[in-house]
Amino acid sequence: MIPIHAYEGRRVAVFGLGRTGIATAKALEAGGAAVSCWDDAEPSRARAAAEGLTLDDLNRRDWGDIAALVLSPGIPLTHPKPHHMVELAQAVGAPIISDIELFAHALAGLPEKRRPKVIGITGTNGKSTTTALIGHILRATGRNVVVGGNIGDAILAQAPPRPGSYYVLELSSYQLDLTHSLACDVAILLNVTPDHIDRHGDFDGYFRAKKRLFEMQQPGGIAIIGIDDNPTSAYFSTLRRQRREEEVIPISAGRVFARGVYALGDRVYDALDCASHPVVDLAGVLTLPGRHNAQNAAAALAAVRALGVSGRAAAEAIASFGGLPHRQERVASLAGVTYINDSKATNAEAAVQALGCYDRIRWIVGGRAKAGGLDAAKPQFHRVAKAYLIGEAADGFARELDGHLPVEQCGDLAGAIAAATRDARECAEAGQVVLLSPAAASFDQFTSYEARGDAFRALVNDRVAADRTPEGVA
């Protein structure tokens, strides 16, 4: 646990008692704060009470003594309207912050020579893979590494920072909205496409949240910017006018430049110190397929090079990267059919990346639709043999796909897997892929994209086990 001393002797409200909220409350108590915990969901309150935390109905208490509100990132801050807790905090002038901001306070309280290096990664797609890949490279090259933020365990549940350690943080727009002083040594923006508009009001509000990561940096901090889409390319140009050239590094999966890191096909090129030269060959790295992962690898290479890792050592580490659950995870192959779990693709911009990696795809798609529907995935429809629709979005997606793809309404995941397997086995073509890449949120049928991916994996493994069991053998 990382004790938070910034509010010692004062009272802090913690609203939202999931894994992060509980870790935050414990860290504040360990630092001497009085903590009032609440969640509107009874099961969450029960878990917090079982952990020994003090429940205090924040809807009913006097907020006059509240010094700060630590808000769960998923709770509305400004749009579609501020949550009641936000209004209560604003009424008494209490700052509204995240656990990441408390982590920043903990770092600020350390002598400079004892502070760890902090690497922050944001963007619409690719954050988790890039975060995990950077953590993997740093560990493989002998560094003490903590990976957290929007991935893994809550950041405040980790061991206290040690000199020479590295914190690699995936940071969502929700978290950045509530963070004001996290000064990353290396900050990465991979890409930006419209997402979470309901939370931020419009695309500009969403992009502003991403930019906060760079606005919080101190002089000397390194900014790594993907330049493969227009908004981030323009932002790269803005930062280049504001900072020294060596502090702003471009990355790309297709564009060549004199200084930076870029990928062409399966090769990742380092053009940071001298003439450009190939450093990483992704052809044999099955956990990093496709153009989007080439950009992720370029970002990771740029980050670790900025932290003093040699290109050769980074390349060796990338070759051993095991990949992430729910992100183009190969679950099984049986009778010429490969099953891929890409449940983390919760929008069409993410799904199109997976669709571009395979041919003869049996595409399981659907859930709770997001703004834009499937439009961003259209460039890869030619790779899809048939779409199998699930969840709330099924009717709407069927209308979008009409005239483009054969579709089958399957209702739920089990039905979609069964139908896709049937069709794949009946098809004479080799190399059939059953791909769960839903292009939609999971909350209509599952509690999270992880739960959806876990269900896919379990259903596929059950089917594989049944197929491999000899007839008549129990």
What does this 3D model show about the protein?
- With 474 residues, the chain is of the alpha/beta class.
- Helices cover 35% and strands 21% of the residues.
- The protein is built from 15 helices and 19 strands.
- Strands 6-7-5-8-9-10-11-12-13 form a nine-stranded mixed sheet, sandwiched between helices. Strands 14-15-19-16-17-18 form a six-stranded mixed sheet, sandwiched between helices.
- A hairpin with a 2-residue loop joins strand 14 and strand 15.
- Helix 10 crosses helix 11.
- The radius of gyration is 23 Å and the shape is globular.
- The model has no long low-confidence stretch (mean pLDDT 94).
Features:
474 residues, alpha/beta, nine-stranded mixed sheet, six-stranded mixed sheet, 15 helices
Task: Summarize, please.
The protein is of the alpha/beta class and 474 residues long.
What topology emerges from the helices and strands here?
Layout: E1 11-15, H1 19-30, E2 34-38, H2 42-50, E3 66-71, H3 84-91, E4 96-97, H4 99-108, E5 117-122, H5 127-140, E6 144-149, E7 165-170, H6 173-177, E8 186-189, H7 197-200, H8 203-215, E9 222-226, H9 230-242, E10 248-252, E11 260-264, E12 267-271, E13 277-281, H10 290-306, H11 311-319, E14 329-334, E15 337-341, H12 348-355, E16 361-366, E17 384-390, H13 394-401, E18 407-411, H14 413-426, E19 432-436, H15 449-468
Parallel strand pairs: 1-2, 1-3, 3-4, 5-7, 5-8, 6-7, 8-9, 9-10, 10-11, 15-19, 16-17, 16-19, 17-18
Antiparallel strand pairs: 11-12, 12-13, 14-15
Helix pairs in contact: 5-10, 5-11, 10-11
